[in-house]
TrEMBL record:
Coiled coil: none annotated. InterPro entries: CO_DH_flav_C (IPR005107), CO_DH_flav_C_dom_sf (IPR036683), Diverse_Substr_Oxidored (IPR051312), FAD-bd_PCMH (IPR016166), FAD-bd_PCMH-like_sf (IPR036318), FAD-bd_PCMH_sub1 (IPR016167), FAD-bd_PCMH_sub2 (IPR016169), Mopterin_DH_FAD-bd (IPR002346). It comes from Actinomycetospora chlora. This is Xanthine dehydrogenase family protein subunit M. Residues 1-174 form the FAD-binding PCMH-type domain.
Amino acid sequence: MKAAPFAYCRPDSVDEAVDVLAAGDAKVLAGGQSLVPVLAMRLGRPGTLVDITRLPGLDSLVLEDGQLHIGAAVRQRRVERSTEVAAVPLVGRAMPFVGHRELRSRGTVCGSLAHADPAAELPAVAACLGATVVVRGPRGERTVAARELVTGAMTTSVGPDELVTGVRFPVAAPGAGFGFAEIARRHGDFALAGVAVRVRGDEAVLAAFGVSDRPVVRELTVDDPAEAALRPVTDALAREVVDTDGDAHGSRGYRARLLGVLAAREIARAHREAHA
């Protein structure tokens, strides 16, 4: 199929882009790796596409004030290959799992956050790290905590007249350890289950994805960091948070099993890293 007819707009400023969005029936085009297939299958029929790829300031990738600032036009591949991403190890570890290399060369970090696919890696990483999403709208600029960004499958708290302009990831604190893993039928496919983990001291933050309609974040106290000792805890957590229906790729019980194993393994790994 082909996309339904639409108008194309390339604004010269963020304010102009917001004005077009506020007029209604418009969608933002950044990387297009999620939007274009939706248009091609006619699952979405916006009247106007607002191309933000050349807007001034949205291509910034800088370390500043203890945060990694990533603009809305920054490609995933650029982040993956940057020196700056070393300051936020969990982002660097997750990036190779985001789709395929060809998709990452066009897809954007903020686009993945705004698309809010339940199986996407970056929304879970952002939620695990306590990242902040910057949004501009007719009423000015505001920030949204990454844990509050996704409200359901493919749904966020960003209004139809608002534009995500960037995301801020806090740099890794001294003594922190990280873990990331997912299971997919093939590398680059949608994750059947995945975890992003941050550990500091005996406290762990875990964000699960691919098992619900949004990233599920839980905070745990690690009494015994051995993987075998963690399994009863993570198995119970998995049974609690996995609420997706089964499909041809795996039942609900299978996903819970995967999540329990991955969570225990990555918490143990992150703990070892934190205490190395």
